[in-house]
Amino acid sequence: CALPIYGISVEEQDAPKRMLNLVRGLTNLRTRHPDYANGEVGSILADTSDWMVFEKQGRRDTYLVLINSTAQGLSYEFNSQHFPKYINSDLIFYSDGKNKEWKDETNSNKRIKTSVFVPPAGLVVLRQPRS
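and the corresponding structure tokens:
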């Protein structure tokens, strides 16, 4: 029997839609993607009241981290003038902060096309091999 921490047991915190479950998911993301974990912060593409978007650059891969700080879902668009290298990137992590849902998408082989939907209070991480 696990001892409760501040009235909530570890088992309760590890359940879906709980903070410990998210922290473990983010820890697993860093473990599965050492370039992401150890990469350098690259360009900051957006830093507004709605978006925080930045790159992490590793030896083999570049990652794009998109954080939507609004209460509604938003799409982030890519085109020939706006960060075209992220067109067809791999979706590797998805978090819906409003609904407290997150998922490691590393093995799902999901690729975005020319945009990516970022849920309310959400976080999305994309991976693009460096050329």
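(Above: one complete record from the training split.) The chain has three helices and eight strands.
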